[in-house]
Write a structure and sequence with these properties.
The chain is mainly beta and 314 residues long. The chain has one helix and 24 strands. A hairpin with a 4-residue loop joins strand 6 and strand 7. The longest helix is centred in the N-terminal third of the chain and has 4 residues. The radius of gyration is 17 Å and the shape is globular.
């Protein structure tokens, strides 16, 4: 029920910042970003803007932020020096955690990939979601759901652990050539190199019933009970629970380069830096700030939303 965005310091950085168009986000995370520029975490400064539920402890940081992750009711950020900062009710970041290159937030747990391809996980662990499998390495991306975790290895295979009540950690046999993944509340979803989407886990609202039209996908996002795909032509497809209209993609929406799925809401970032939001707005999470423009990255959490602004005019 909140959103986040990152704002860049200079338009001269725009080309670099628009490179990672295959970003994926879920209700609980914003997956690895590779953004250039200098960021801070307070509205009105260059950098992170949060809207929706506004009970968060907003801070400014003395070093650049290069990635953000939205958890159940907390936010984390990756700094340019490879360290992680977190605020509100975030799980305590492990001491000496460094050389981080990828960050993900589950509902109440967090994950990071370090420069050597290993995974560090911390936070709530009732279902073993922070028990990283022994020997896991060569990881390039991670994702966190409500109580489960996913890792994408450099060879295109996926490893999952944590709660398996609904089969969300039962990675399909033979799954390979994966290029992006996301974790929803209790389901898991991937995009393969051929643009196809595959999902497994809880299916009480059809969130893993991938439509036949979900082809040529380049990014994926997973909410509590819905799934969103970004296609190579810049259009968006969504399926699953639609009690708040979170899967009702606005007519004519195109030119999209990034997507994010919150608990019951959805965000899309267009090539012109404009954000489009739909779904549950109970906490203002679909009410975009009036000055929101030149955005380069978005994330949607359970109670907040995040965006990044290219010009720092947030």
């Amino acid at each position: 029920m909140f959103s986040l965005a990152l704002a860049a310091r200079s338009k001269s950085r725009a080309r670099e910042e628009e490179v990672p168009i295959r970003m994926i986000a879920s209700r609980f995370l914003l997956v690895c970003l590779a953004l250039a520029g200098s960021f801070s975490s307070s509205r009105g400064a260059e950098g992170v803007v949060i809207w929706g539920s506004t009970h968060f402890d907003m801070r400014e940081f003395d070093q650049s932020l290069v990635a953000v992750a939205a958890g159940g009711r907390y936010t984390m950020a990756l700094k340019s020096d490879g360290t992680v900062v977190a605020w509100d009710s975030a799980p305590e970041v492990p001491a000496r955690l460094s050389n981080v290159r990828c960050l993900a937030a589950g509902f109440a747990h967090a994950l990071a990939v370090t420069s050597d391809g290993t995974v560090v996980a911390w936070g709530y662990n009732l279902e073993g979601q922070t028990n990283v499998p022994t020997g896991l390495g060569n990881v390039r991306q991670v994702a966190g759901g409500y109580s489960h975790s996913l890792a994408l290895r450099t060879d295109g295979t996926v490893i999952a652990w944590g709660d398996n009540t609904y089969g969300q950690t039962n990675v399909p046999s033979g799954l390979s050539a994966v290029r992006a993944l996301a974790a929803g509340g209790d389901h898991s979803v991937v995009v393969r190199s051929n643009g196809t989407v595959q999902a497994w886990g809880r299916n009480n609202f059809g969130q893993i019933n991938v439509p036949a039209s979900a082809t040529n996908a380049v990014a994926i996002a997973a909410g509590a009970y819905h799934t969103v795909a970004l296609k190579s032509d810049g259009t968006v497809l969504a399926w699953g629970r639609n009690n708040y209209g979170q899967t009702s993609v606005p007519a004519g929406l195109g030119g999209v380069v990034a997507i994010a799925a919150g608990g019951e809401h959805t965000l899309a970032l267009r090539t012109n830096g404009i954000v489009v939001a739909w779904g549950d707005g109970s906490y203002g999470q679909t009410s975009l700030p009036a000055d929101l423009a030149d955005v380069v990255a978005i994330a949607a959490g359970d109670l907040i939303r995040l965006r990044s602004n290219r010009t720092g005019t947030s």
